[in-house]
Write a structure and sequence with these properties.
By secondary structure, the protein is mainly alpha-helical. It has helices at about 10-15, 20-35, 50-60, 65-75, 80-90, 90-105, 120-130, 135-145. The structure holds beta,beta-carotene-4,4'-dione (45D).
């Protein structure tokens, strides 16, 4: 099967059209679905920097649960912050690893837990089914395209007077 990153376009757009909380919720359901098949020590993971993802994760783990949730919402919403800029300077695969660490942190209750009664809206349900129909390699390409633009790319924004960043 031939596959190009561009084939993700419509799915990436559908993901970004969801409101921020629905994006987080869908991402959580994706993790619960595929979590076991993700192996952080995957061979050939040459562009991943585990120490960088881990140190960013460690900063988030120290926050209160409210701050942890806000940080995740802010990454999706491109809010300027030190962590958003640190995130934006990582490689796409390291960004994926960071989200994976967050999801694992949620599972071990070190990060704000997912509310059991929180439901996906129908657009998110549809997208979830579409994602499940992709093979593993296609899913990873899709998630890279989704997490890549999150945060703030420090090389693309100018100095922010308000935050001093
Ligand atoms: O109260 O090559 C709501 C590596 C609102 C290795 C909420 C890899 C209400 C190298 C928003 C619902 C492993 C990196 C609360 C490859 C409310 C390599 C909170 C692959 C509390 C390929 C919701 C990595 C929250 C892969 C907090 C495939 C939701 C990684 C949070 C995949 C959701 C990672 C999170 C995935 C989801 C991570 C954190 C799918 C994370 C998903």
């Amino acid at each position: 099967m031939t596959y190009t990153p561009n084939a993700n376009g419509p799915m990436v757009e559908a993901f970004q059209k969801l409101d921020v909380d629905q994006q987080l919720a869908l991402f959580w359901y994706v993790y619960t679905e595929m979590g076991d098949s993700i192996t952080p020590a995957a061979p050939g993971a040459s562009t991943v920097s585990p120490q960088i993802a881990q140190s960013l994760y460690d900063q988030v783990e120290k926050m209160t649960t409210e701050e942890q949730l806000q940080l995740q919402r802010d990454l999706i919403g491109h809010q300027n912050s030190l962590i958003a800029r640190e995130y934006g300077s990582m490689s796409d695969t390291t960004k994926l690893l960071f989200w994976y660490l967050l999801a694992q942190g949620m599972q071990k209750q070190a990060i704000v837990p997912f509310p059991h009664d929180y439901k996906l809206v129908s657009e998110a349900e549809t997208l979830f089914s579409d994602i499940k129909a992709l093979d593993f390699g296609e899913q990873i390409t899709l998630f890279r395209d989704i997490v890549s633009p999150m945060g703030v790319d420090p090389s693309e924004v100018s100095h922010d007077k308000e935050t001093g960043l």
